[in-house]
Each structure stands twice: as C-alpha cells, then as structure tokens.
C-alpha cells in the first residue's frame, strides 16, 4: 500500500522490526508549552519503548504525558530510506520488581555517576513510511 505522495506504508510488524533494529531515537514532548525533540537511547520491550535516562534529565518532564517517538534512516539524496513514528503515553517505572526486569534489558547508559531512571512509552499509535 502507498500513501498519497507515493511512499510505501509500513505494517505495524515492519515498524516494530525497524524499532528493534536501532538503538537511538527521538522523544518528542512539550516543556512549558514549547516543543522539545530529545535524542534518547532505547530498547523495544513487547509493545513499548523503554528509555534509560539519567537522574535530572530534562526528558523526565515528559512523565505521565502523551509523547511522540521517532526513528529514521534516509539517504542524503532521498533515493532510499524509511521513517517510523509512535505516539503513546509515557510513564516512569518505580516498582522495584519491574525495575529489576528493565535493568536487565540491553540498554546503554552514559554512566555519569547518578542513578538512571526508566521511562516506558506505550506504542499506542505506530506508523511508518518507506521510500520505494
């Protein structure tokens, strides 16, 4: 299937496959009514994206809100590429049992000496496009 500008519409399964194949994405949220796009490391966990962020990170203002999450890979000459975007609620995990499981996920940390926090974005709306 193709959209109105000729891009191939990706299935949910293909979007999840592409999400699982990369490790850095963009979290899009608002802070004091202004848009923010912040690069983050992540891992897919079922139907969610898990973010590991340092204590004090500006991304923590996104807790308990609706955010967008985006990844892409596009050639400079636009001859090939794809983009995946998700929209969903983000929550901070503070349950110790859940944190033990999340800490075991293969998720990079900058290791700056402070305690990391875990945010989970539910993949409620998921869409993607590919340059054919």
Could you explain how this protein is built, in words?
This protein has 132 residues and is mostly beta strands. The chain has two helices and eight strands. The chain has helices spanning 12-20, 96-103, and strands spanning 8-9, 24-31, 34-45, 48-54, 65-74, 81-92, 116-122, 125-131. The chain has a six-stranded antiparallel β-barrel. β5 (65-74) and β6 (81-92) form a beta hairpin. The longest helix is centred in the first third of the chain and has 9 residues, at 12-20. The protein is globular, with a radius of gyration of 16 Å. The model has no long low-confidence stretch (mean pLDDT 94).
Q: Topology, pairings included?
A:
Blueprint: E1 8-9, H1 12-20, E2 24-31, E3 34-45, E4 48-54, E5 65-74, E6 81-92, H2 96-103, E7 116-122, E8 125-131
Antiparallel strand pairs: 1-8, 2-3, 2-5, 3-4, 4-7, 5-6, 6-7, 6-8
């Amino acid at each position: 299937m193709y959209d109105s500008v000729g891009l191939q519409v990706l299935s949910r399964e293909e979007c999840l496959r592409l999400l699982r194949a990369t490790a850095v994405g963009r979290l899009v949220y608002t802070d004091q009514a202004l848009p923010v796009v912040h690069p983050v490391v992540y891992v897919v966990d079922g139907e969610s994206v898990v973010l590991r962020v340092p204590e004090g990170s500006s991304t923590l203002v996104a807790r308990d809100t609706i955010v967008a999450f985006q990844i892409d890979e596009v050639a400079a000459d636009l001859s090939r590429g794809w983009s995946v975007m998700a929209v969903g609620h983000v929550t901070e995990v503070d349950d110790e049992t859940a944190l033990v499981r999340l800490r075991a996920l293969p998720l990079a940390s900058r290791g700056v000496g402070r305690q990391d926090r875990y945010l989970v974005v539910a993949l409620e709306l998921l869409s993607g496009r590919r340059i054919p």
